[in-house]
Design a protein that fits this description.
CATH superfamily of the largest domain: Nitrogenase molybdenum iron protein domain
Largest sheet: 5 strands, parallel
CATH architecture of the largest domain: 3-Layer(aba) Sandwich
CATH topology of the largest domain: Rossmann fold
Number of strands: 13
Structural class: alpha/beta
Distance between the termini: 38 Å
CATH class of the largest domain: Alpha Beta
Strand order of the largest sheet: 6-5-7-8-9
């Protein structure tokens, strides 16, 4: 059995608890991480750039040793109720780190008790601090939709939701706005951008859209839930560069007409992309890496030096198995990915590295170097050639 938890050379992705907080940040709620304190400081310090633009209610329970050993939930219940009465949030989100998971903390049960005491809706999201942000964002957004969005609120008109939009994948440098622009300039209204630039009331109308555009794997869980509940098809992929933006617009129109879900990437081998020696290897979050690899392959052969591109992405729960990741990167001719992946190449001069930072992987370290890669104005050929 492989050990996916041990990393000697590479970093790990942002944890699920940060994903929950990132998803709920702008919706007027109060997020509580049940944990001794570490997860909250990691989120606020490394994973959340929006502190400088607006406030959000983020708390940690301060779980101590005796409370954990004795299983006394009265402390967290009383603290949350007291804070809720003082701050009056629209709702409360309860998630947690590894310690509550170990002691089998009852998230739904405690959430019901808190809601009964303070009369404010409470959303339990059973995280464990061991999975990636993709799991956290997906769980939190799906739970929010179940509680606050009305599946009967439908419209026959063409419009889209952008699902899976958080700073963890797109930072705060204009990528979200660039994606909106692609569809709006094509005459397709953007109903909601889940979840950046939306408030509680606007997001509650998610079901008015006729198509969900899943722009990161974090948006896949809520999109699939809405497809089951209301038959809303999904288009998976990022409008990245002129050709891929046109493809995204056409895919949305097709999904609207046929009510069938589609993807933007070319995936002839099913869910497995074969990694051959000397290729361009795009490594990172699944929807991003698959879209970018396909966008590179759409370029004329001479503009990519005759090389084809393939994608490598982490498992949602386990991340990258480090030995397999190192082997894959060292087989490539060109690697496109977060700068922290470069360490495993160990200075090899025969492999060209194209830096494309990912906030969910390297945090704030390279935030200023993240380009606006979404939208029709992204010049993929120039980026690959000059990076």
């Amino acid at each position: 059995m492989r050990n996916y938890q041990t990393h000697v050379f590479t970093s790990t992705y942002t944890a699920d608890v940060s994903g929950v907080c990132s998803a709920m940040y702008e919706l007027g709620g109060m997020s509580v991480i049940h944990d001794p304190s570490g997860c909250n400081s990691t989120y606020s310090t490394h994973d959340e750039p929006r502190w400088y633009e607006g406030n959000s209610l983020m708390f940690v329970s301060g779980l101590d040793e005796m409370t954990a050993l004795l299983g006394d939930d009265r402390v967290i219940i009383e603290d949350i109720v007291a804070a809720a009465k003082d701050l009056n949030p629209r709702f409360i989100t309860l998630c947690g780190g590894a310690m509550p998971h170990i002691i089998a903390f009852d998230y739904p049960g405690v959430a019901r008790l808190i809601e009964k005491k303070c009369g404010i809706p409470v959303i339990p999201v059973a995280t464990d601090g061991l999975k990636s942000y993709v799991s956290g964002v997906g769980k939190a957004m799906t739970a929010w939709i179940k509680r606050f969005a009305d599946p009967e609120e439908r419209s026959a008109d063409l419009s889209v939701n952008l699902l899976g939009v958080t700073p963890l994948d797109f930072s705060v440098n204009g990528n979200a706005e660039a994606m909106r622009k692609v569809f709006e300039e094509a005459g397709i209204p953007v109903n909601c951008c889940g979840i950046m630039g939306e408030d509680f009331d606007s997001l509650s109308h998610l079901y008015r859209a006729s198509v969900n555009v899943v722009v990161s794997s974090a948006g896949r869980r809520p999109a699939r839930y809405m497809e089951r509940m209301a038959g809303i098809p999904r288009v998976e992929g990022i409008p990245m560069g002129k050709e891929m933006a046109e493809k995204a617009v056409n895919a949305v129109k097709k999904a609207h007409d046929t009510r069938k879900s589609v993807t933007l990437w070319q995936d002839e081998n099913g869910d497995k992309w074969e990694i051959s020696p000397g290729q361009i290897l795009v490594v990172g979050e699944e929807v991003f890496s698959k879209t970018l690899a396909s966008a590179i392959n759409m370029l004329p052969e001479e503009k990519r030096s005759g090389l084809s591109a393939t994608a490598l992405w982490p498992d949602v729960d386990e991340g990258f198995p480090e030995p397999e990741l190192i082997t894959a990167l060292n087989r490539a001719g060109v690697v496109v990915g977060d700068p922290l992946f470069k360490v495993v190449l160990k200075g090899r001069k025969d492999i060209r590295f194209v830096s494309l930072p990912h906030e969910a992987y390297s945090g704030r370290i390279f935030r200023d170097q993240i380009p606006v890669f979404a939208g029709s104005e992204f010049n993929l050929e120039s980026f690959i050639r000059n990076a």
